[in-house]
Amino acid sequence: MTAYIVRRLLATIPVMAIVALFVFFLLHLTPGDPAAVIAGDDASPADIEGIRRKLGLDRPIWEQFGVYVWNLLHGDLGTSIFSNMPVMTLVMQRLEPSVVLAIATLTVAVAFAIPLGVLAAWKADTAVDRVVMGFSVLGFAVPVFLVGYLLIYVFAIQLRWLPVQGYRPLANGVVDTLRSIALPAFALGMTYMALIARITRASMLEVLSEDYIRTARAKGVATPSVLLRHALKNAAIPIVTVIGIGFALLISGVVITETVFNIPGLGRLTVDAILKRDYPIIQGLIIIFAGVKVLVNLLIDISYTFFDPRIRQ
Amino acid sequence: MRIRNSILRAGLRAGLAATALLLVAAPSIAQQPKVLRVTMHADVRTLDPFWTTQTIAGIHGMMVYDTLFSLDTDLNPQPQMVDSWTVSDDRKVYTFTLRDGLTFHDGSPVTSKDVVASMKRWGQRDGAGKQLFGYTESVAEKGDKSFVWTLKEPYGLVIDTLAKSGTSIPFIMREKEALVDPTQQVQEVVGSGPFVFKRDEWVPGSKTIYEKFKAYVPRKEPPSGHAGGKVVKVDRVEFVWLPDPQTAQAALVAGEIDYLENPQPDFLPMLESDPNIKLDVHPAMGTMGLVQLNHLHPPFNNVKARQAMLYIISNADYLNTIAADPKLQTLCYSYFGCGVAMETDAGSEPYKGAKDYKKAAALLKEGGYNGEPITILHATDHQYINPASLVLVQQMRKAGLNLDVQAMDWGTVVSRRAKKEAPAQGGWNIFITGTTVLSSSSPVTHVGISMACDKAWFGWPCDAKFEEMRKQWAFAPDVETRKKIAAELSKRAYEQVPYISFAQWRNPVAYRSDRISGVLSVPSVPPMWNIEKK
Fold first, then answer.
1. Alpha-carbon distance values, A38 to A280, B382, B420 (Å)
2. Where are the beta strands (DSSP E) in B194-336?
3. Which distant-in-sequence residues (6+ apart) come within 8 Å of A210 by Cβ?
4. Pairing relation of β-strands B136-142 and B287-293?
5. What are phi and psi of B244, to 5 degrees?
6. Residue B294: which pLDDT band, with cuts at 50, 70 and 90?
């Protein structure tokens, strides 16, 4: 097992190198000029050229790539062209809101989706199944910003129970954080709820038709025990995969939710950087996101061994 | 009886405890810092107001730095850091003396060395500053508190330029920062303005925090616009960046922010109906939309083709699309904006009249246009440029023009517009942008109207006669003469068509009148001093 993990970790090195190469050249081949954005609307072409020179953007692309790789090998993701702050500092400022939002969203989603998925599978082809799947379709179909605005209108403007926007850090108290994250977690959780509920149902239906389930029922095992101990555990692998991928996606940013609820997360940092052509931030974030995805995939693979002992061998 | 007594005793104890709690709590309530929460039109991303000409950098600068002169609410220049000044008889030598009590946030006094270095740095970046320095022989300190500005010629706009409140605003930095190359960003933000920037709490893309500068000595005059005493009445100002306009207006309605600089026109009726929210519009506040034409390439390198556009573009169509509320609209045909001293529609007859596509087609033909594709850079992610571009495309297609509309984000437009190559080689023919009425109110500060060929703004219009007239305007001795020259400039501009201004609309600010008072009315770069939080 250890050798497997080490092998997988070593395999991340070429993956990250390819990501670094691609992101650098793709960005520099894409139209756009940070110097023009910095200089502002009233700047003259000569001003823009001056800024471009100072930022080193007039140097040959290979020279810029060399500096980028050299810094990367020294663990330096660079400095934001606009704010002059190290990319790592900017990422660390945004990490807590993103992680808290991801965990809260998945908690809300899993807490509702798995029971609903199990219920739908158990009551397959009945009215209960149709209601659950109807809700699931709705969760996919309704855009997250619409759910967000509706939640804001009801819970923040009309009832005044929760704040409209903003993130309160954990350092200010867990209750404050939970209050600030409740609406975005629920709005975003709707989509993941729908996805996980559908996967759970499909996976459960497959397992419920297996011989060992029929045997368990024939032995007189109680339905909850059949569903949860025998069926759900064996149906867990695709569900865990979806949750894991969902976590990686949530960490790498959910721009619309972050924008609607003003959560200063990594998604907004990425999009803002792209719109402003802040190359060091974009490059740094993509490297980090690639790392997170590789790590999450590894964790998912390891988790399979707990659900299916055959994989350990 | 015993029960009643015990209830009474318990009640008494509870009453005493509550009173004690209130007494303990009272001082802490009294000491609660007064925090003003505002959402500006953009997020503070760069801290050097000379490095970028973005208005948000000017707003940040206005918090942290001070200025020699400022405009009052009627847009008249008034002294701010300057205590007194004299002008020589030949109007070539200005001697300024700084007022007492000016200190930087690090405690060091503001000296004339700081002022001279700051002005030289600003003069390398700002359009009006470059103009002023073009007529400057020297700027030199005279002791710690005075400095002398010597001109080569009696340029008439020295004080007006130093008082300008459109970006880049001539702020005073420490000499240390002012000596930094203006194409490079300063590392430290230490001003002498009424607020101190809290770098340790700054989260770019989310929030920017300022605290009251307790050692700031305001002028004695009452506040007016950016002029007068900058008396800070809150302990802390938080710029909360809310990128989503719907969320921003909801946050204002819910009282999570006190002030919203730029509510979207769509939400104004909702805000107007809230009794706790007040909308404020300065007479000179607003945006002017510009259809920028590239003078280097066909068809708009020919004046006839540019004139043809005046018969195609209809002002009202843009206004109804961008700012549907008639209260926000101004049908404006002045190159220098409407509602300002230099407003003039001289020479605008072809533009003001009914749209005439036949006339436009004839002019285009005369100008050598044979149906080649006209490349339009369409910024799809911009609040008003996107709808304005759609209107323009519709109007030009109605006139029978062959268009190559290229959709892109604003970031790509700003880099692409700098390309002088032909449209087929990555250049362009048309893009849409905007400017503030304040910036365009003077032929000198209005960079888009310059027709200085290679030195002009993107589009590179070229007309020596117009540039000579701009110079005359700058040297005019009084406002009346300037108005006359502005009318001549307008006529010439309508002949040469450097660009076409498609509309003027107002952008009110919105604030919680039940929570704050003392909001100062300005056309742009809103000041945060004088605002009291209840």
1. 15, 17, 20
2. 195-197, 207-212, 236-240, 259-260, 277-280, 287-293, 329-330
3. A234
4. unpaired
5. -95, 120
6. very high
| Dihedral angle, C-alpha A190, A191, A195, A197, nearest 10 ° | 10
Q: CB–CB of B23/B225 below 8 Å?
A: no
Question: Which residue from B368, B454, B378 is spatially nearest to B413, judged by alpha carbons?
Answer: B378
CA A267 to centroid of chain Cα atoms: 9
CB-CB neighbors (< 8 A) of B42 in chain A: none
Question: Which of A61, A76, A75 is CA-nearest to residue A26?
Answer: A61
Q: β-strand B430-436 against B287-293: which pairing, if any?
A: antiparallel
Q: How many CB atoms lie within 10 A of CB B298?
A: 17
Q: Say whether residue A270 is in contact with chain B using an 8 A CB cutoff.
A: no
Buried b (16+ CB within 10 A) or exposed e, B124-154: ebbbbbbbbbebbeebebeeebbbbbebeee
Which of chain B's residues have a Cβ under 8 Å away from the Cβ of A90? 204
Q: Which two tokens stand for residue B119?
A: 């002005």
Q: How far apart are CA A210 and CA A215, in angstroms?
A: 9
Q: Which of A66-75, A102-111, B135-144 has the lowest mean pLDDT?
A: A66-75
Q: Please tell me the distance from the alpha carbon of residue A50 to that of residue B130, in angstroms, as a whole number.
A: 15
CB contact under 8 A, A44 and B205: no
In this structure, what DSSP letter does residue B302 have? Answer: S
Residue from B414, B432, B453, B512 whose CB has the most chain A CBs within 10 Å, to mutate: B414
Beta-carbon contacts of residue B533 (< 8 Å; ≥ 6 apart): B34, B35, B36, B233, B234, B258, B515, B516
> How far from B310 is each of A30, A248, B423, CA to CA, in Å?
35, 54, 22
Asked whether the predicted pLDDT for residue B53 surpasses 90, the reply is no
- Among the residues of chain A, which ranges form H helices? 2-29, 34-39, 45-55, 61-73, 87-122, 127-141, 144-151, 174-208, 211-218, 223-225, 233-234, 236-251, 255-260, 266-276, 279-307, 309-312
pLDDT at A274: 86
- ipTM higher than the 0.85 cut: no
Query: How would you label B366-379 residue by residue, b for 16+ Cβ within 10 Å and e otherwise?
Result: ebebeebebbbbbb
B144 vs B98: CA distance, rounded Å: 9
Least Cα separation, residue B273 to chain A (angstroms): 15
Higher pLDDT, B415 or B453: B453
Which tokens is B517 given?
A: 């008072």
pTM of the predicted protein model: 0.85
Q: Name the B residues in 293-332 with CB < 8 Å from any A CB.
A: none
B315 exposure class (CB count in 10 Å sphere: 0-12, 13-18, 19+): buried
C-alpha distances out from residue B234 to A302, B210, B241, B278, Å: 55, 10, 19, 20
A140-189 pLDDT tens trace: 899 999 999 999 999 999 999 999 999 999 999 999 999 999 999 999 99
Distance between CA atoms of B25 and A54, rounded to whole angstroms?
Answer: 55
Tell me the average pLDDT of chain B.
91
